[in-house]
Predict the structure.
Amino acid sequence: MLAYSMLYFSVRLHSFLAFLIAGLLLTAAGSRAAYAETLGLDFSLPASSSPAEPAIAAADYNPLAIPAAAIAPPLQTQVAQLPPPPGSVPTTRVLLPLNEKAWNDRSQPPQSAVSSRPVSPRPSPHTMAQPAADWLFAGGADSLVARAVGSAEGTRTAEGGYTWAYYGHLDPGNGVWNLGSFSYQHGASSPAAADAQQLARLQRQSQQLADQAAQQGLELSTLEKLNGIDLANQSPKAALERGGYIERLAEAQQQGMAGTDAILWARIYAYLDPETHRWDAPGLGNTLQGIRHDQARRLRAISHSLTKYPKQNYDSGRSDRWHQ
């Protein structure tokens, strides 16, 4: 009974408090409205009105001109058209060799230039040449052959001196280590040993050149011999095999060339393979221009060394022509 009385009392108390709070809220709202009215406050929305006059009158407004660049066509339409690709590059003209008379340059030798028969390494007795001029090799490392070929190789001076390359250098064509006057690259203990080995080989090859010259009915001058020996040092195939130096030299003379013109022509076309009719000189670029430049340079070096060789050092009774 006591619990029921307390519950009843609590409910009546909460109802009274709620009534009292509601009355207070209504009284406060009425007081604020009256106070606002006393102050003359107006919370209604104002009527719409026209915008104020701008600072600058419309009559005084002048629009800025639009730059031409802003209305230009897109960038890709403004790029000028590239010129058409050039035509084929003209072939480089081959210059005339040395400072002597004009050389009759030919890009291909006549087809009849090379015999279809290989050059016989042992000609018959009635065409056997006289022994090669041994005086060219007299003096060993100080011989005319060593000076001339060494000058063409860049290992010796025209007067017979030694350059830095004599003591060893890398071959620019195949990257092999070269040693001595002849740029020997087959293994040697010293530059002097390399010279001794290559001199013996070149002396044998010089005899082969003499035999081939006899077959062709040629009497070689000293300059022609030295260039044949130098070519054998540079490329035994170009010097000694079919279509090599001696055959090309005979052909050049048959076409009316002589002296250094014939020698240079023979040296160049000795590198033309008689079977494929293509250049076989990979170390020289396999081009006519590259081969001609190298062979003309070597010919000049040999000619210069020949003029510097003391005349008393060679046999005055030899039968071959000294210089042509």
In short: Strands lie at 169-170, 177-178. The first helix runs from residue 2 to 39.
